[in-house]
Amino acid sequence: MLAFKISGYLFLICLLFLFRFSSSVNYLYRICPNTTTYSPNSTYRSNLNQLFLALSSNATRDNGFYSYTVGRGPPDRIEGLFLCRGDVTPDVCEECVRNATTDILQRCPKEKEAVIWYDECMLRYSNISIFSRSEQNIRLIMRNTQNITGQPDRFRTVLAATLNELATEAANNLPGKKFATRQANFTAFQTLYTLAQCTPDLSSGQCNTCLQDCISNFP
């Protein structure tokens, strides 16, 4: 299960999902509102190409996060960033980011702001400020259609306790990566795996608020 929330005119993302490893890039979803668009031969598109080059060139950073700005001012200034899942290798992160810079142009060919998600990474750009600010209005929730069979009350209790501990750990992680994983025994034979992550440009308070908001959506 994944819960995403884009924050502010900054970008705030939090991820809460069942923890699993993957060696390939798996597309999940994209959002690209068409309220503001650009033409193919515009300065904005040229700046976008520069942004993607900068993001791709920094996709092997240890913390799996990078932000960059192109252009001096409106209407052609662009802010962009990527965030790779905290457990993926630099090679997987690089593959995901490079794929995203191509894929997002196909899925959002003319919009001045867009965000695209994969299992392994997220990439976003916008013509408005998106760094270190919060937005409450855009969220994406994806979930498995299977239900817990047996002991649903115990599952909710274990899940709530685990996620609350997880959010605290992720929000207060060392600078550079706001990421944490936790597991708990649901039964003697079933283990609950969880993961939480915020973009590192957020404060601990912003990260914790976002994750707690995501947790409240699980029921």
From TrEMBL:
UniProt keyword annotation of Repeat present: yes
Signal peptide from the UniProt entry: 1-24
UniProt name for this protein: Cysteine-rich receptor kinase 10 isoform X1
GO molecular function, one term: kinase activity
InterPro entries membership: GNK2, GNK2_sf
Catalytic activity: L-seryl-[protein] + ATP = O-phospho-L-seryl-[protein] + ADP + H(+); L-threonyl-[protein] + ATP = O-phospho-L-threonyl-[protein] + ADP + H(+)
CDD domains, alphabetized: Gnk2-like
UniProt superkingdom: Eukaryota
Domain Gnk2-homologous stretches: 26-130, 136-219
Coiled coil: none
UniProt keywords, alphabetically: Kinase, Receptor, Repeat, Signal, Transferase
